[in-house]
Amino acid sequence: MYVEVPPPQSRSIHLVHGAHNRKITRTAMFAGLGVVVVALGGLYVLCGELDNFLIACATIFSGYVLIMSSVSLVSLVYMQRESGIGDELLPAVPNGPSAETFAVLIPARHETDVLAETLLNTMWTQRDHPAHTVFAIVNDDDPDTAGVAARTATVVNLAVAQDRSYEQIRSELHTALAREAAPERDPNRLAATVPPGPLQLIVYPLGNRPPNKPQQLNYAFWRLHESFSVFTVLDAESIAAPGLLRAVDQAFQDHPGVEIIQGGIQLMDPQITGSRWQRIGRRLHRWYAWHNLLEYKRWFSSQMRYQSDRGFMPLGGNTIFLRAQLLARTEAWPMSLTEDCELGVRATAIHRARTLTFYDPRLTTREETPPSLATLIKQRRRWNIGFLQSLVAGNWRSLPTLRQRVIAAQILSMSLFQALSLAVLPLVLVTMFWIDTPAPLAVAGWIPLVPIALSVALQLLHLREYSRGFGRRVPWYVYVLFVVTFFPYQLVLSFAAVQAMVWYGLGRLGWDKTAHVGDHFEEQVAAEAAA
């Protein structure tokens, strides 16, 4: 039976797991801030003069940047550095009958532009797995999205029963969606019209609650948890890779003790049409997209494996496969702005769940980059607030070793580092260019640029791998654009982190939805699915 989870009423109490009351109290937070203020005051007294104080602060900050950039560099090259680990990231080829039953959950809200394409693609690309069902989950106050989901499920289920080809199903679906919507506007009645088949519609009774993603997921899980052994989540604009469920099923069979499998996700550069100069102009306008998609490649191809091997893995986005028994123990998805991250924290820190990761372009879920810079900032602000929630909730402190807790704190506090970087940057610039700094300290201030430069060079190699692995042409000027805009992109991330800290301090914890336009959909996806 479904038990309603209340929306968050405070900054952290809703994330504390049962009797494991590990949250960091407000008193402790203010005490930590007081320690920082006292330390800065003591440093000023020791320095005696403002110039010396600024030089000391800039030097300390440079050392901190050196440590953080070096840690980032280590995780960036982890997959290549560890002998043989690259092959381990690829799942085994299915060689036997399926053993798991999959529930594919696709929560959606105001996604009429992309949901139909995602549902059709997911059904068709996973049809080789005999025991799975795809569930679109919509709120009862969203009749437009419910209507698209119901019409898509009806057309697809009837066509599958008649053994229609992909081209025929796609054509019938586009015709059905082009017709004027049916007069029925009640999402529950729309769900009742969906015939049996691989696509189904679940309507969440939102009531007076503010909308968010974990509510939809929890409602679906508690309705379905006795019927399926594995649950996975896709976003409303996700393009699932053909054969993904079969490969994950085989991975669960090969690793019977594993309870979580994290697959790869890759943001795609937008499909741009027009003349040569129009394409160049639009790529320059979406300059941030290249940094954004490389962050995903780095995270899922190397960073995620690094964290999994260390026993702490905040889960990332979607393409997460979880055993139903584990979800029941974690009380399903937590009410957080980054429910995937906090779920991974609980599962690995408290329940000691074994994890497995893989990254293979052939099995990677494709998604779009944010359509505008403002959308990117909104998305990062939400993520940063969610990471702060997990940091303050303190469930990561249940990890058994100090090394694991340090890694967890470093990952969850990244937004603090980004915000601090933006705040201290003017001070560092003033110190470096307007204050007479001793030569050794001046040289030391530039040392952090070494790992940063190496990181940029490695990311250019990742961009080349992205181009080859996903068959996307990356013009030469994009590499130049990436280098030129590297530091501006870091400033964008720092600005989003500062916003997140302000919103978190004000208690603004509402779910801020990111708009999707589907500009990563392409004709070759349809061709791959048809093949």
From TrEMBL:
<protein>
    <submittedName>
        <fullName>Glycosyltransferase family 2 protein</fullName>
    </submittedName>
</protein>
<dbReference type="InterPro" id="IPR050321">
    <property type="entry name" value="Glycosyltr_2/OpgH_subfam"/>
</dbReference>
<feature type="transmembrane region" description="Helical">
    <location>
        <begin position="406"/>
        <end position="435"/>
    </location>
</feature>
<keyword id="KW-1133">Transmembrane helix</keyword>
<dbReference type="Pfam" id="PF13641">
    <property type="entry name" value="Glyco_tranf_2_3"/>
</dbReference>
<dbReference type="InterPro" id="IPR029044">
    <property type="entry name" value="Nucleotide-diphossugar_trans"/>
</dbReference>
<dbReference type="GO" id="GO:0016020">
    <property type="term" value="C:membrane"/>
</dbReference>
<keyword id="KW-0472">Membrane</keyword>
<feature type="transmembrane region" description="Helical">
    <location>
        <begin position="28"/>
        <end position="47"/>
    </location>
</feature>
<feature type="transmembrane region" description="Helical">
    <location>
        <begin position="441"/>
        <end position="464"/>
    </location>
</feature>
<feature type="transmembrane region" description="Helical">
    <location>
        <begin position="476"/>
        <end position="504"/>
    </location>
</feature>
<keyword id="KW-0328">Glycosyltransferase</keyword>
<feature type="transmembrane region" description="Helical">
    <location>
        <begin position="53"/>
        <end position="78"/>
    </location>
</feature>
<dbReference type="GO" id="GO:0016757">
    <property type="term" value="F:glycosyltransferase activity"/>
</dbReference>
<keyword id="KW-0808">Transferase</keyword>
<keyword id="KW-0812">Transmembrane</keyword>
